[in-house]
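Input chain follows. Return structure tokens only.
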Amino acid sequence: MKSHFQLVVLVAGAPRSGSTWVFNAARILLMRRFPQVYSAWVGEYHSEIEAACHLVKAHRPEEVTFRADHVLTSRRQMAECIASRIRMGWTKADAPSILEAAYSHIANYNYWRPRSDFEADFSAILSTPEQVVSGLAGVLGVSESSCDFSVVAEQLTCLPLPTQGSYDLVTLGSPLNRSSSTDGLREGGRGLAGGHLPSAGWGVLFGVAGSVRVPCSAQARSQSRVRVPGRTPSHGCGTAGG
């Protein structure tokens, strides 16, 4: 039983898919609803900390050992995510590494999607961020009367990124997210999630996308300690399913 906080929100999804944007959008919205919001990367998360709301970001399912009231996820084309991983230095630009990243991306997405209360599409984050913020607010119980969604969307383009260290403890942004064109957290172009996939990697991805699907097993669902919603997740464009 939760005795010292009211709500636990998990932000998850494939790396470089827009999850940092979703995390910060949720953080700003939740601060409108709760007097104190404790937010953290899962590796630094301490469930015993007293706060009205806990907001945690993770990528790998095995990292999540707590029960979440809401699960928020992000979706982006696999090739774009892998290109961004290469730019960040997390994945080598060779065929075996790209193949490994592709399998990991598919498994990650197929695990989190059926567990998601709201899935933010990366293209919608770029084109209609106010609508994505509005969708998140609906899930998180934040009314439009208490929050101007367009202001929140603008705040997300202006959040500073650290100049050193591994990542910012508040925004979870990394110094590697910096570019010559932007210092904010808008994950587009060559900002937070920019990058280009080497031409040699396209054949690998086409092969994976055409022949491989990693399903969520019934066993993984039953053993998950994250709440599994009983509905199709909402999407960043404001429509259900799809």
